[in-house]
Design brief:
heterodimer, A: three-stranded mixed sheet, B: mainly alpha, 0% strand, ARM repeat-containing protein (chain B)
Chain lengths: 181, 1043
């Protein structure tokens, strides 16, 4: 990666709360514990946009390691569309500046995270938000071309940079805990 | 003479300390003269053989070292000195000569000239590079000794001494010698006139910065890097003249990449700058600021950032502490520039750089009064202006966020310097308050506004009563808006804080508002929005109403609502009673939650609610149960309500004094056992319909009546030991046992009875000989062991038996073993062995019935004691028997392990040591049992063991985690438990996935590698699990396998 700075002082956004899901059936009783979250019968809970967002929200920004993609509003829940029946997921992301050279890396980190975390039946499309990047077409092409993604993942330096960004992904929107220092 | 000669000869032949001791004591007793020894040594001292010469000098040096100082007079010292000095010139005897000089350097009889001679000799003849560590140590020790007792002489030597010493110390590398050298350096730097030698001294100290020493493993000398760092810092901060070069050096080191070096550099700066003084620091202010700024704006890690902020404070304090303390004076220099720079960054409050800029400004507040004043008077107006600027409306949230953190910092530092900071905010108080209350109106800025108000309110003495009232009324507005996010919670926290400072505003404005939002009638089944709303109001109330005066209002208002909802005389008109029951349940839960908090806080006002709340509840439920209309159509018929009400009864009854408990329980006893409801309430209201009968223990009692047993049971549990139930305990318990076996219709009723049994057995065992005897003699035979009895009845009887055991076990009663033995006898009986095994396994589990707050007799370590008595037996049984009996042992084992503290069985777990592999294979067998509850508990046991392993970092310890050996079978078993196709219980799948996540943390990679592919494949199936929570764990488990 080059040492060039693309956006030294990006705007920081407040974190959103984790999506609150209502069970489909009528809730009459105030439940005492949170256990009922997953113990409520055999109900099928399909994968939705919020769940996909939870997977990628806490990926670190490659340029600002202490900030997450969510904090920089690169990804957001409304920008994700899941069509469970057709096994299709569309993720759109917004680079902080139109000339951001890290866009491909960000897109790739989203792709790798989803590759590892979603059932293989899904086809995932990743795009930059239309009009938000100078070389929009090139970035989209790189991110959605199987061969190119595979080639990129052969590059050890790139994979190392990816793993650093992905290390925070399992926080799922929770703020950083006090470090082990 | 001969004696000396003999000693010398012996020693030269075989050097032992013994001869030295004898010679030294001889000299001190006067038997041997020093001169004899010198004479005796003559032939050796002049020998041509290097080795002999060396030995001769060494013997003398050793003897001198041992002789008490008073036996060496001035004369002798002069002689010895000149002798050792002459030997110093001889390359072969230099080492023993140094030892001799070390001995002499301790002597007070050494003359000033002698000191100078020694030093000059050393400076002239000793080449440090050619000596080994121990010898160099002697040289440093000589100088250290002289510095300690002859400092004046050394000072007179002045530059000659320093030059000589610098030459000696230069290039020293051994930590042991350095510790000594640093100590010497510090004395020289502080006490000597070093004007001309500053550079030399700086060179021999600063060259060691930063210390990168790492002690070798098993270091016998015990010198740590920290010791060296501290010693070196004490040199670097010893003289202000080091200032300019040292600051440059520190900044250079700060620019390195390694965080430990940065921390060291920052910590050293903190210690040194105050010594170097304002002028040095002022000269380097720009460079310091630029370097520190970088660490704050682009922090490598949180710790460096924090340390850099602290260093900034030190810099500012050093520069400005000496200047006049007049805060009104205009500030010049670094603080002004830096403040200005940060405020410029704050012009874009929403950008990422604004946060660190604000951190710096917050750090400025706790420096000096003048800087603090300057910062406050610039930052607050700036942020207020920003907030009010119409162009910046979208960024109001960010501006308020910054303002809130600034005021919080101001509040925290006000605790340290109360007079300065609190007053500096006063001129802006109204504006700040206005900005925050305006911010409350918009959703995006409400959160920061609330934290800002929180900071304002908690700043002692800033706001007066009226202003607090103003804050409360504004925050009320936030509460009444329907807010989904965390703002509502924060607003409640703020109000709770205010209710501690001044409850009157909350009780007079907030509570009426909240109560007005609570409907009198339950929202109908389809009206989920109103239901949600009333839940959130109740939740708010439960957080807010902890203070006594607020709680009183809460109880009054909620009891009224409850009576309206559940009144047996005017039941809800529509047919659907469930929403009313659910609403009443939510109200009762709210009361119970607040009471739990109050009890854990130890509030003294809880006890009075026995009259104001409990009596009312009992009357409400019992009145409903005997209602002439069909009680089962009333809301109180729902067992969930009784359970919460019983919890309230228990919480309040437990804090009553014994006397009050006695009168309370008498009334309940009359009602429940004797059917005398009038005993409960003598109030004028006719609640009890004529001719109604209340007999919950009767076989034919209605479910509603039997449900209320729960209240009786929870009240009985809370009794002090000395409070008596007005009946013969044996007869009472026999009645309860009988009721629980064949009278009760539901688990709730049975459990109510069982809890009473356990509690009475626990507290009154001395009076229960008759009961225990009849249990063992007749009840066991007729109700439990007799195979012709209905299996369900036998199960209930086992339940009653187990609870009796519990009451005995927690007090370590001698009869416990007899009762347990009878249960183990049942392991052969296929019809009930599973139930018996479960009972035996979980009898030591914690339960809510027998607790300290319920005044039970609890012996410490009773669970450990029990587990010691049965654990090995279950293990043996599980290994030796087969079929159903083996399963029974396995079941007992897993339940036992789940129910007792980990220490009770840890010695059998793999973590304990290589010899103890006993449990793990058995637990793996347990995982094959069909019962999902057992499987969950086994996996959870394994999980908690694994967590202990990660805590001790067993993976990197020498023998590694002992799970390693079973890693393969564990992995495969867990994989069987994660598939929806084979395991329908989500809890099991989640537990198994968690175990797969933690396994790589405790087992080395090479043990897991063979299964990597299959694990990843099976986990990818779990990624498509229908349950969201399972998928989440699967993602984490998969991620843990990628790294």
């Amino acid at each position: 990666m080059s040492d060039q700075t693309f956006n030294a002082n990006p705007t920081v956004f407040a974190l959103t709360k984790s999506a609150k899901r209502r069970a489909a059936k009528e809730l009459l009783w105030l439940s005492q514990s949170d256990e009922s979250d997953y113990d409520s019968g055999d109900e099928f809970e399909p994968i939705d946009g919020d769940e996909v967002f939870d997977l990628i929200r806490s990926i670190s920004d490659p340029e600002h390691r202490s900030l997450t993609l969510e904090q920089l509003a690169v990804v957001s829940a409304p920008q994700i569309t899941v069509t469970d029946q057709r096994n299709h997921i569309m993720v759109e992301f917004t680079p902080t500046v139109p000339h951001c050279g890290m866009s491909t890396l960000i897109g790739l980190s989203i792709r790798v995270r989803l590759m590892r975390s979603l059932p293989a039946r899904f086809k995932v499309d990743i795009r930059v938000k239309p009009g938000s990047h100078n070389s929009e077409h090139g970035v989209n092409k790189q991110l959605n071309d199987k061969e190119r993604v595979a080639a990129a993942l052969e590059n050890p330096a790139l994979v190392e940079a990816l793993e650093v960004c992905l290390a925070t992904a399992s926080r799922r929107g929770q703020p950083v805990e006090a470090g082990p220092y | 003479m001969e004696a000396a000669q003999r000693l010398i000869q012996t020693w030269v032949a075989t050097p032992r300390d013994e001869e030295v001791e004898i010679a030294a004591s001889g000299i001190s007793q006067g038997n041997i003269k020093l001169v004899h020894i010198v004479q005796g040594l003559g032939e050796y001292l002049t020998s041509d053989d290097d080795d002999l010469r060396n030995k001769g000098v060494e013997f003398l040096a050793k003897v001198i070292g041992k002789v008490p100082t008073e036996h060496l007079n001035r004369q002798a010292v002069v002689v010895l000195l000149s002798f050792f000095m002459s030997k110093l010139e001889d390359l072969d005897t230099i080492i023993p000569a140094l030892k001799g000089l070390l001995a002499l350097s301790r002597l007070s009889s050494l003359s000033d000239e002698g000191v100078i001679i020694i030093l000059n000799g050393i400076f002239k003849h000793v080449k440090m590079q050619s000596l080994v560590q121990a010898q160099r140590f002697i040289v440093f020790s000589i100088i250290d000794n002289l510095l300690a007792i002859r400092r004046q002489v050394l000072k007179v030597m002045g530059n000659d001494f320093i030059t000589g010493y610098v030459a000696l110390a230069e290039g020293e590398k051994d930590p042991r010698n350095l510790m000594l050298a640093f100590a010497i350096d510090r004395v020289i730097l502080i006490e000597f006139d070093i004007k001309e030698k500053i550079e030399d001294l700086f060179n021999i100290t600063a060259c060691y910065f930063p210390i990168s020493f790492r002690p070798p493993p098993d270091d016998p000398y015990g010198i740590t890097a920290d010791d060296l760092k501290k010693a070196l810092r004490s040199c670097l901060n010893a003289n202000a003249a080091f200032g300019p070069p040292a600051i440059a050096l520190f900044l250079e080191k700060l620019a390195t990449v390694a965080p430990p070096t940065k921390w060291d550099a920052l910590a050293t700066l903190d210690e040194c700058l105050p010594v170097y003084g304002a002028s040095s620091v002022r000269n380097a202010a720009r460079q310091l600021w630029n370097a520190l700024k970088l660490e704050i704006f682009q922090p490598t890690d949180p710790l460096t950032e924090e340390a850099a902020l602290k260093s900034v404070q030190v810099v500012i304090k050093t520069i400005y502490s000496s200047s006049s303390e007049n805060p009104s004076q205009d500030l010049e220099g670094l603080a002004k520039d830096a403040c200005h720079e940060c405020i410029t960054i704050l012009k874009e409050p929403e950008k990422s750089q604004a946060q660190p800029a604000m951190k710096i400004l917050c750090a400025f507040i706790s420096t000096t009064p003048s800087v603090s004043h300057h910062t406050v008077s610039h930052v607050i107006p700036h942020l207020i202006k920003l907030f009010l600027n119409p162009d910046e409306v979208p960024n109001r949230g960010a501006s308020l966020n910054l303002l809130a953190s600034f005021i919080a910092a101001l509040r925290d530092s006000a605790i340290k310097f109360p007079d300065v900071n609190a007053s500096s905010l006063v001129p802006y108080k109204d504006e700040v308050l206005g900005v925050f209350t305006t911010g409350l109106q918009t959703p995006s800025s409400a959160g920061p506004a609330i934290s800002g108000l929180h900071a304002l309110v908690t700043m002692a003495g800033l706001l007066d009563e009226d202003e607090i009232g103003f804050v409360v009324s504004n925050v009320n507005g936030v509460l009444s808006n329907d807010r989904e996010d965390s703002v509502g919670v924060d607003a409640l926290d703020l109000l709770t804080t205010i209710s501690i400072i001044s409850p009157v505003h909350v009780s007079s404005t907030t509570l009426p508002l909240l109560f007005s939002l609570l409907p009198d009638r339950a929202p109908s089944r389809g009206d989920a929005a109103s239901r949600e709303k009333s839940w959130s109001v109740l939740n708010s109330l439960s957080r807010l109403c902890i203070q006594p005066v607020l709680f009183e209002t809460l109880v009054i208002r909620l009891s009224t609502k409850l009576n309206l909802l559940c009144d047996p005389l005017s039941p809800p008109t529509d047919d659907d009673v469930e929403p009313s029951a659910a609403y009443a349940h939510a109200i009762l839960s709210t009361l119970a939650t607040v009471l739990e908090k109050k009890v854990s806080r130890g509030d003294s006002d809880v006890a009075k609610y026995i009259d104001r709340l409990v009596s009312g509840l009992v009357v409400l439920f019992l009145g409903g149960a005997v209602s002439p209309k069909d009680p089962s159509t009333l809301p109180i018929a729902d067992s969930r309500l009784v359970i919460v009400a019983a919890r309230i009864v228990n919480l309040i009854a437990a804090v009553l004094p014994a006397q009050k408990q006695e009168s309370f329980i008498q009334k309940l006893y009359s009602a429940y056992v004797l059917g005398d409801l009038k005993a409960l309430s003598t109030s004028a209201r006719h609640i009890w319909p004529d001719g109604s009968s209340f007999a919950p223990f009767e076989r034919g009692a209605t479910t509603v009546q039997a449900n209320t047993l729960c209240l009786f049971s929870e009240a009985l549990l809370a009794l002090h030991k000395e409070v008596r139930v007005p009946a013969d305990p044996s007869v009472f318990l026999e009645m309860l046992v009988q009721f629980s076996v064949d009278g009760a219709k539901a688990l709730l009723h049975r459990e109510s009875a069982w809890h009473i049994i356990a509690s009475v057995v626990n507290k009154r065992v001395t009076e229960l000989d008759g009961f225990l005897k009849s249990m063992l003699e007749s009840f066991y035979q007729t109700a439990i062991a007799d195979a012709s009895v209905d299996v369900d009845l036998r199960r209930y009887a086992i339940g009653a038996w187990a609870w009796t055991c519990k009451g005995l076990l927690v007090q370590n009663h001698a009869q416990t073993a007899v009762f347990i033995e009878r249960l183990i006898d049942l392991f052969d009986d296929e019809a009930v062995n599973w139930d018996a095994a479960r009972a035996v396994g979980s009898v030591a589990a914690q339960c809510n019935a027998l607790t300290k707050s319920n005044h039970s007799t609890l012996k410490i370590l009773h669970a450990q004691r029990y587990s010691n008595s049965v654990l090995s037996r279950f293990i043996e049984g599980a290994k030796t028997y087969a079929g159903s009996k083996q399963n029974a042992h396995l079941v007992a084992l897993t339940f036992l392990i789940r129910s007792v503290p980990k220490t009770a069985y840890a010695h059998k777990m793999p973590t304990a040591g290589p010899s103890a592999y006993i449990l793990l294979p058995l637990l793996l067998c347990g995982l094959e049992l069909p019962d999902t509850e057992i499987r969950t508990s086994v996996i959870e046991t394994l999980l908690s063991a694994a967590e202990a392993d990660t805590a001790t970092d067993a993976k990197h310890s020498k023998e590694g985690s002992l799970v390693t050996e079973h890693a393969t079978s564990l992995t495969l078993t867990m994989l069987k438990n994660i598939s929806i196709a084979t395991v329908s219980d989500a809890k099991v799948r989640i537990a198994a996935l968690r175990y797969l996540t933690i396994l790589p943390k405790i087992v080395r990679y090479d043990a897991l590698h063979p299964q990597k592919a299959i694990v990843l494949r099976d986990l990818s199936k779990a990624l498509d699990d229908p349950k969201r929570a399972v998928r989440k764990e699967a993602v984490d488990a998969r991620y843990s396998r990628y790294i």
